[in-house]
Amino acid sequence: MSADRAAALRSLPSVDQLLRRLADQEEVRGLTRARLTALVREALGQERTRVLEERAAPAAAETLAARVVERARQAGPFSLRPVINAQGVVLHTNLGRALMSPLALERLGAVAAAYSNLELDLARKERGSRYSHVEALLQRLTGAEDALVVNNNAAAVLLALETLAHGREVIVSRGELIEIGGEFRIPDIMLRSGATLREVGATNRTHVRDYADAITPDTALLLKVHTSNYRVVGFTADVSSRELVELGRERGIPVMEDLGSGSLIDLRPWGFPYEPTVQETVASGVDLASFSGDKLLGGPQAGIVVGRRAIVSRLQKNPWNRALRIDKFTIAALEATLYAYEAGTALQTVPTLAMLTEPLAAVRSRARRVVRRLSAGVRERLGASLVDDLAKVGGGALPTVELPTVALAVGTNAEAAMRLDEALRVGDPPVVGRITHDRLFLDCRTVLPAQVSILARALTAAAARL
Ligand SMILES: *Cc1c(COP(=O)(O)O)cnc(C)c1O
Question: What is the pairing mode between strands 196-200 and 169-173?
């Protein structure tokens, strides 16, 4: 390093100097001292790099402090925080999937703030089961003999395979050996559970005789997996749950179906394609069915298993179940969500269902309300216009469904769209949209009514940075 660069670096303020400068700034008040120190070090590190690379003079302490304040304002005291989903993907795994209903929030709050009867049978004053709070509801709603809830559906599948098929074979159709993003792949889960995968049929066609021919004394389970996030179209054939159950009964082998999303409501009246509900799957006679709590059901993250009592209780007794167990928050939110289904209020109160079934006119009027809250100047600067577009269900559920929606399109060219996208993402609260045809689309189907004015404010702030 040359002597002048070394001198330039030496003229940078120290961490302590910057911290003293920031001490009484309103914007950094909520931050812990350690977090603020980390932000200061980060700003100094970046400035050091800039001074060396651009052979520039170091910024003044005041400028550096302002940068830290700006970063603190954007980042806030907490890492995990609410985001406005303007991407139009209702069940967005990266954005936290399902939102909780007001009732679920109320139950969560009540149970979190006080001791609870989580594992106490109050009437008998003896140890109870945490699952008892949702078991009866799940039995009534699905018609199953018994139910169990674990951490998520991946855990449910793992637990079932480990319990029923460790050291033995599981028959699965080649058309159903799916990967659901992240690390969930049927063949990998199978391997980890200690079961051996026996693939049958072809990618596009599997017949019941393919399963029948593959059965040996080593066969422990016939597994059917919902091809959630993709569709095989054209010359295809798969085996229905009912046919598989018939074969399983004949040969004395249990049948499990991983439903993926698993809906308790037939959504055809709202224009969705036919999907067997959990109740229908249970009625087909499968021994076990599993599905996610936070996909179409619209509850907290959970893996719900329903089925025959003798088999569910084997899963319950597996030590793995203890490692995969749900906490009281999940139970409280899940009970409230299931309660809404039983009370017949789920379509109105469970946010996922409300968003999926909301009429286009209501989405349009929400989009208009956002526009009305922008000044004429901001509107012009953003080049704001309303565009009819298509939103998605997401979460690997109903991948071919396109939901009619209205987006607020902003940015008059690709460069402006990218700048707005960035400004909104790092704003407070962050807004996540999608870039389409060189414009930033803010899809209003997933923007909550209560977020209309917040979104307008965020857009006004972002416009100022153009
Ligand atoms: C989503 C999905 C899973 C994983 O469920 P998580 O609740 O996310 O663990 C498993 N199987 C299928 C078919 C799915 O669609």
Answer: parallel
